[in-house]
Design brief:
CATH class: Mainly Beta
Distance between the termini: 35 Å
CATH topology: Pnp Oxidase, Chain A
CATH superfamily: Electron Transport, Fmn-binding Protein, Chain A
Structural class: alpha+beta
CATH architecture: Roll
Largest sheet: 8 strands, antiparallel
Number of helices: 4
Length: 160
């Protein structure tokens, strides 16, 4: 019988996963296209709330925004390969999440806006356009690949 490739989640895995989330400036967002009901993936800029919840600033003009408004279930892949070696040996985290659009009139929106501008200063050019909104990606589960032979399953409690 094959051995389970998923390792028990430990402090080192949690630290790596949190680091991948906190240090990400962009990632691949997966949504379900409302017309075809098939997966669609796009690159988005990513930041975090003060609690480490992934957040993105997205335009109402984009297909992924329309998809998230139709079905908030999504996936987010974070982690970039290094400059050397096999890209599949570098750490990455695949997050399953629920998207929540934030109300621009709230203190939470203002706080996230301030944090986001610190990590994405060029977004100052468009952050206040009427069609742009922040969406939090509330983690429901995650899979960490910490490198070859280092697979972990993580819960929201492990990450937030």
């Amino acid at each position: 019988m094959p051995q389970d490739p998923i390792r028990p989640t430990d402090a080192e895995a949690i630290t790596l996963a949190k680091s991948l989330i906190r240090n990400a400036n962009f990632g691949a967002l997966a949504v379900i296209d409302p017309k075809s009901r098939t997966p669609s993936v796009t690159r988005v800029a990513v930041g975090t709330t003060k609690d480490g919840v992934p957040v993105s600033l997205i335009s109402d003009l984009s297909a992924h925004t329309k998809a998230l408004r139709n079905d908030p279930n999504c996936g987010l892949l974070l982690g970039e390969p290094g400059s050397k070696g096999d890209p599949l040996t570098h750490p990455r985290i695949s997050i399953q999440a629920q998207a929540t659009f934030l109300d621009k009139s709230t203190a939470q929106y203002a706080a996230i806006r301030s944090l986001y501008l610190q990590s994405h200063p060029k977004s100052k050019l468009y952050i206040d356009f009427a069609d742009f909104n922040f969406v939090t990606l509330e983690i429901t589960s995650a899979a960490l690949n910490g490198g070859f032979g280092k697979a972990y399953e993580l819960s929201p409690d492990d990450l937030i």
